């Protein structure tokens, strides 16, 4: 009877806190899942945030809720949570110092996904690498170079460096120099050069190609031809235009 009374006393003393702690863990886990889905849905549909960043922030929100839930459950079990918070803080500081470079890349990845200076499919120059963006992760940016080589650039280097995005706008200006002999008719030369550029199907009509006198010397005049094209047509237009201008200079201005 004495043993039964002791068991009964223990159940009355520790049973309710134990049940409350288990209930907090179960309900808290369910709430954490709801918070994760709600944050992800809100960021993806309402805020139009990148999918990678939305999932990262949703997971972060879930773990924050779970941390509070675990601390609340442990307090029900009689554990002094103040000391645990101090231990977690010290451990977090140690991990942060050990993974300083990695965490800086994660922070830079979050900033890149939030502000979106470039997107997947854009052609960029960043951290000494030029190519097409294949993927943007929290740690690195996957760039495929013009010679079809994969380069994984840490986000920290990109965020702290100048980024040139060749695909940001719908058109790009190409500049060419044309040497015209001093004896040639400069106005007629400008008209021929513009007509040549306008005949290229890749050259945009608005803004239309134009030619101006860039510089003059005793040997002749240098014309600057400006042609606007779509970013995807840059390489082909530059090659064909250089060849056409070479032939024009040899025949019309010789």
Describe the model.
This protein has 254 residues and is α+β, with helices and mostly antiparallel strands. The protein has 3 domains: 2-98, Helix Hairpins (Orthogonal Bundle), CATH 1.10.287; 117-165, SH3 type barrels (Roll), CATH 2.30.30; 172-252, 2-Layer Sandwich (Alpha-Beta Plaits). It has 7 helices and 8 strands, in the order ααααββββαββαββα. It has helices spanning 2-46, 51-76, 81-98, 100-115, 155-159, 186-198, 234-252, and strands at residues 123-126, 129-136, 140-145, 150-154, 163-165, 172-181, 210-217, 220-229. The strands form 2 sheets. It has a 5-stranded antiparallel beta sheet. It has a 3-stranded antiparallel beta sheet with strand order 6-8-7, with helices on one face. A hairpin with a 2-residue loop joins strand 7 (210-217) and strand 8 (220-229). Helix 1 runs antiparallel to helix 2 (51-76) and helix 6 (186-198) runs antiparallel to helix 7 (234-252). It is rod-shaped.
Strand and helix layout:
Blueprint: H1 2-46, H2 51-76, H3 81-98, H4 100-115, E1 123-126, E2 129-136, E3 140-145, E4 150-154, H5 155-159, E5 163-165, E6 172-181, H6 186-198, E7 210-217, E8 220-229, H7 234-252
Helix pairs in contact: 1-2, 6-7
């Amino acid at each position: 009877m004495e043993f039964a009374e002791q068991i009964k006393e223990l159940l009355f003393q520790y049973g309710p806190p134990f049940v409350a702690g288990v209930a907090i863990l179960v309900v808290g886990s369910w709430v954490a899942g709801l918070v994760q889905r709600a944050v992800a849905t809100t960021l993806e549909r309402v805020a139009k945030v990148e999918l990678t960043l939305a999932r990262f922030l949703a997971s972060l929100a879930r773990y924050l809720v779970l941390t509070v839930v675990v601390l609340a459950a442990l307090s029900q079990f009689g554990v002094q949570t103040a000391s645990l918070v101090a231990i977690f803080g010290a451990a977090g500081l140690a991990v942060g110092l050990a993974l300083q470079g990695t965490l800086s890349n994660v922070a830079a990845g979050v900033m890149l996904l939030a502000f979106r200076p470039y997107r997947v499919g854009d052609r960029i120059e960043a951290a000494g690498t030029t190519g097409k963006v294949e993927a943007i992760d929290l740690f690195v940016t996957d760039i495929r170079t013009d010679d079809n080589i994969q380069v994984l650039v840490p986000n920290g280097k990109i965020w702290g460096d100048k980024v040139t995005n060749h695909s940001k706008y719908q058109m790009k200006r190409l500049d060419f120099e044309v040497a015209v002999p001093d004896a040639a008719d400069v106005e007629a030369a400008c008209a021929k050069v513009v007509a040549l550029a306008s005949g290229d199907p890749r050259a945009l009509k608005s803004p239309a190609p134009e030619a101006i006198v860039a510089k003059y010397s005793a040997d002749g005049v240098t014309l600057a031809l400006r042609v606007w094209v779509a970013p995807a047509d840059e390489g082909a237009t530059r090659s064909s235009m250089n060849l056409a201008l070479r032939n024009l200079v040899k025949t019309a201005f010789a």
